[in-house]
Amino acid sequence: MKVLFVCLGNICRSPMAEGLFRHHFERSNLADVFVTDSCGTGNWHAGELADIRMRKTAAKNGINLTHKARQIQHEDFEEFDYLLVMDHENYKNVVKIRPDYADKVFLVSHFNPMYQNQIVPDPYFGEQADFDQVYDMLNHITSELVIYFHQNRK
Ligand code: 4NP
User: Fold this and answer.
1) Quick check: CB of 84 below 6 Å from ligand 1?
2) DSSP summary character for residue 113
């Protein structure tokens, strides 16, 4: 099952989601079940590592973020089974690119009983604590996504 995480810049939220999702499926010995990547709706940061503040929060929790930012491509809609976005703006922008694939696009919190349909707030103009909060939210959501997708895989 292939899962693509999408945010605006692909340097804060979605690379963290990708890193955490991978961490959780590897820890559950499901590396042969899942493939994951991340991307942004914008291209301003293409080629860059994640924001240093996001990498600090990740490293503090034992996760090394090596993803380099890239913009979403038309092919991603065919390649991935799920495109999981962080907020309503991401949703609108992603669906606009390929409306025919809208059934693959969900808020990352969509399947989560605790955070259902809450957005993951953009921490870019915030403080380190905002990055820690994004981490906590995505840690919870992605660990449960591994279980949910594994149980409900096609
Ligand atoms: P992200 O955060 O979408 O979580 O990667 C942002 C990163 C950069 C910008 C906005 C949001 N920016 O405006 O450059």
Assistant:
1) no
2) T
